């Protein structure tokens, strides 16, 4: 059985623990109440103002970003359109320059043909141009001129012959062979000053052309024949206008 002194000490210890627990509970309730007040208390006016200003600033910045992005898109599209228009303009200018060069060549040709100081010449082949169509077909354009008898009409027929090599041997293709039809008729011409006569010829496989001869058979007078090297005939020449 405990002594009175021991019982008194035990009661004193129990009372101290009760007091400590009560103090701890009071402190906990005080901190809890303070925290709850912080959560539920209304936001001060200055904080609400700052928050509202931040939101408005963010919306304003987003609007500016959207406007700048739209402007960049518009400028990019405008630049693309300008580049395309510039390319089209450059192409048009190049075509016009080529057309002007052709017209100047035509004027020079006319001056040489019918000018007061032009040299008088009878029927002649002014130019011959050969253009490939495929491996065997060629399109030819001949320019015939005459200014000896001004006002007189030159009429007749035109044929070609082509010289070359095949399998190491010289060969000459007549008009009928070039046209691939027996007794092929010549191409007619009729003009006062000049005319372009065009047609197609066909070369056999393995044939290497060297020279082209143009033969003119007028209704009156002797036949005229002029030769051109294949290199000259396939070189670009200045165009002339249609027959007159």
UniProtKB/TrEMBL annotation:
The residues that cross the membrane are: 19-37
**Is Coiled coil among the key words of this record?**
yes
Question: What keywords would UniProt list here?
Answer: Coiled coil, Membrane, Transmembrane, Transmembrane helix
Which InterPro entries would you find in this protein's record?
DUF6776 (IPR046703)
Coiled-coil stretches are: 51-78
Any idea what this protein is called? Transmembrane protein
* Species in which this protein is naturally found: Lysobacter niastensis
